[in-house]
């Protein structure tokens, strides 16, 4: 992150966004001073079966409950109400396959699909409160499955289709999913990604799953268990089977999404029905100010929170048209993204700094091959965006006329917490700053001791007040919820990031303050990767850390101690990497694996990851007085020297 001069470099943006920020300021102030009135209006973005009575029940902190007494159904809000309006024949999704095929699904088409799948799920015995797991590629059935679950009140957990079988099994186990919805496979870089096979391996290790619904997508041969598996097309007919939407309580869970933390066990972040939906729909409106006829493309994967909130729930609640693309952004050529923008005349593009930096490396000739003039707003998410990438995006993609909406948020926050609010008046932008908090968000930057730091000084970002989109708890682990997020700075939500607030009140997000990595925008836990490494027979110890990477943000480096038989195996490292890939998924595979005889440890035997990282990156290792022996430090240095030699 180039921290540099926070106050300069303000770029002009298009005339029509020069609304100033007075509307933003007054809206923001009202959200904090008159929350009741503010949220009464903001929550009318949804149709409620019964209006809420109390805005916030904070009688049992930190288990905050929003819009209590309110009843609603999210699938009704995302689909049914549009079908009864002039949006009936409007495209909800324009699906684009990697091979260029397209499928347009209207709101009416989505309505039929959601009802039919909801009906099939009911016929297979799923009812309100049951958990189901979705493991699908970026195809129409993905949002359909999420909405069908919401329709019947089943809590879904969507697992990113790049996860391996052990990661999937952990999530099935923790969520106690009774059903899995998957596909035979997906497409990526012109190849088939096996999905059903991975599901089979994961389900075998668990005991809760009764049925697996399989979408035929790739059409390749897959194993099929007739007693358990059913084909999607056999249970979901084309005719229409209406299913009455279940009337849900505002604080019934809508979904569980697993994310990485500082221990090996992923955290099941639980989001609510009412608060979450109000939050995502409003934040999308505030930040991006989409027009009814805009084409919106959030190029994230549905399996992450960005996809949940801004490919599925927010755009559908708002009745917008989204692009849904299955495939790589550089396949078959590095102009793929720009080609799709041109072909579908996309108006708002929302992607990650890693994607921008990747495409930037290929040079401006690729975007220059396409007409990108329909773009009016560009978004960024998932990791800090460095000013150089910001400027390239702004100039080469947006033609110097599209505001960059850098949205800062987390799986836990449900939707944006800090982002320019175009819909409320665009502030002058500063490349690399996510600007100001969304209405309802009350951030503060603290030092080690919980004291607020002066402007311009780096500290930990925390929040003094809850907001409607904030997660309700961690699945099966309310204690960990309290401990992880609310104990560091009592009474506040602490999210694990560093930030600076400059003299003009702009927020600059500076990355994780804990043992969580951001690799290509993917949130990974160092301990998760270490656990996967030592689950390989022959690996005795492991220390994993993130190394700054100009494209991916961070790359994964592992130092391991192995038993002698593995030491002499020339294929050893390749086998270890494959093991991580199959268990956790390709995004977890370390970029560098170094074998050493020992790792630095404290006298009580704890591996000092901090020291490994500092030594390997050539930084001062800090206080190593508790180190058991310094031999391991020398060895790390030697391993890195050796690696550098090979790398040239
Ligand atoms: C990081 C992704 C800087 C941050 C939506 C956070 C960002 C973590 C930004 C959450 C941004 C996300 N600028 N950092 N605009 N957006 N982050 O849960 O470290 O996958 O804590 O949610 O991503 O990652 P998660």
Low-confidence blocks of residues: 1-9
Total of DSSP H or I helical runs spanning 4+ residues: 20
Shape designation: globular
Instruction: Indicate the CATH class of the domain at 112-246.
Output: Alpha Beta
Structural class per helix/strand content? alpha/beta
Name given to the CATH architecture of the domain at 112-246: 3-Layer(aba) Sandwich
Distance between the first and last residues' Cα: 25 Å
Global Rg: 24 Å
Ligand types: 5'-O-[(S)-ethoxy(hydroxy)phosphoryl]adenosine
**How many strands?**
30
Mean pLDDT: 94
Helix content: 25-40%
Largest sheet: number of strands, sense, barrel closure? 7 strands, mixed
Strands in their spatial order, largest beta sheet: 5-4-17-16-18-19-20
How much of the sequence is in beta strands? 15-25%
Write down the CATH topology of the domain at 112-246. Rossmann fold
């Amino acid at each position: 992150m180039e921290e540099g001069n926070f106050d300069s470099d303000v770029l002009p943006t298009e005339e029509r966004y020069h609304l100033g920020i007075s509307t933003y300021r007054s809206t923001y102030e009202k959200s904090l001073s008159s929350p009741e009135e503010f949220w009464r209006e903001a929550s009318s973005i949804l149709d409620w079966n019964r209006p809420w009575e109390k805005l916030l029940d904070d009688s049992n902190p930190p288990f905050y409950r929003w819009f209590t007494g309110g009843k609603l159904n999210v699938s009704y809000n995302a689909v049914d109400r549009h079908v009864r309006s002039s949006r009936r024949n409007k495209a909800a999704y324009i699906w684009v396959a990697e091979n260029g095929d397209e499928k347009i699904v209207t709101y009416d088409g989505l309505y039929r699909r959601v009802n039919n799948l909801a009906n099939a799920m009911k016929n297979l015995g799923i009812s309100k409160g049951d958990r189901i797991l979705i493991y699908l590629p970026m195809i129409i059935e993905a949002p359909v499955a999420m909405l069908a679950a919401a329709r019947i009140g089943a809590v879904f957990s969507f697992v990113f289709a790049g996860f391996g079988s052990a990661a999937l099994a952990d999530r099935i186990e923790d969520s106690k999913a009774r059903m899995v919805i998957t596909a035979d496979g997906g497409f990526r870089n012109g190849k088939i990604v096996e999905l059903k096979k991975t599901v089979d391996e994961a389900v075998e290790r668990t005991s809760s799953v009764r049925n697996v619904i399989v979408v035929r997508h790739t059409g390749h041969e897959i194993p099929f268990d007739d007693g358990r598996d059913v084909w999607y097309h056999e249970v979901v007919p084309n005719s229409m089977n209406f299913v009455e939407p279940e009337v849900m309580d505002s604080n019934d869970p809508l979904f569980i999404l697993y994310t990485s933390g500082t221990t090996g066990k992923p955290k099941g972040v639980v989001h609510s029905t009412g608060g979450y939906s109000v939050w995502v729909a409003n934040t999308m409106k505030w930040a991006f100010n989409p027009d009814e006829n805009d084409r919106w493309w959030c190029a994230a994967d549905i399996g992450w929170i960005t996809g949940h909130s801004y490919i599925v729930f927010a755009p559908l609640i708002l009745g917008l048209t989204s692009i849904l693309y299955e495939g790589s952004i550089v396949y078959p050529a590095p102009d793929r993204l720009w080609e799709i923008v041109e072909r579908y005349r996309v108006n708002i593009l929302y992607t990650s700094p890693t994607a921008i930096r990747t495409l930037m490396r290929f040079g401006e000739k690729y975007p220059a091959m396409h007409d990108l003039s329909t773009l009016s707003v560009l978004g960024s998410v998932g990791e800090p965006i460095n000013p150089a990438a910001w400027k390239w995006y702004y100039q080469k993609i947006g033609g110097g006329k599209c505001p960059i909406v850098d949205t800062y948020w987390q799986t836990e926050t449900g939707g944006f917490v800090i982002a320019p609010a175009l819909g409320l008046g665009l502030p002058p932008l500063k490349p690399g700053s996510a600007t100001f908090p969304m209405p309802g968000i009350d951030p503060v930057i603290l030092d080690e001791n919980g004291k607020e730091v002066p402007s311009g000084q780096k500290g930990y970002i925390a929040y003094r007040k809850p907001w409607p989109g904030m997660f309700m708890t961690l699945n099966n682990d309310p204690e960990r919820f309290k401990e992880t997020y609310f104990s560091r700075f009592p009474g506040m939500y602490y999210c694990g990031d560093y930030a600076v607030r400059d003299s003009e009140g702009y927020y600059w997000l500076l990355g994780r303050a804990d043992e969580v990595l951001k690799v290509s925008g993917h949130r990974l836990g160092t301990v998760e990767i270490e656990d996967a490494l030592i689950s390989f027979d022959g690996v005795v110890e492991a220390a994993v850390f993130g190394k700054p990477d100009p494209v991916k943000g961070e790359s994964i480096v592992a130092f391991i101690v192995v038993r002698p038989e593995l030491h002499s195996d020339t294929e050893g490292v390749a086998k270890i990497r494959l093991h991580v890939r199959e268990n956790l998924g390709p995004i977890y595979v370390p970029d560098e694996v170094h074998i050493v005889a020992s790792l630095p440890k404290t006298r009580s035997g704890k591996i000092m990851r901090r020291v490994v990282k500092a030594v390997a990156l050539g930084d001062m290792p800090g206080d190593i007085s508790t180190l058991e022996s310094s031999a391991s430090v020398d060895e790390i240095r030697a391993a890195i020297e050796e690696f550098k030699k090979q790398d040239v």
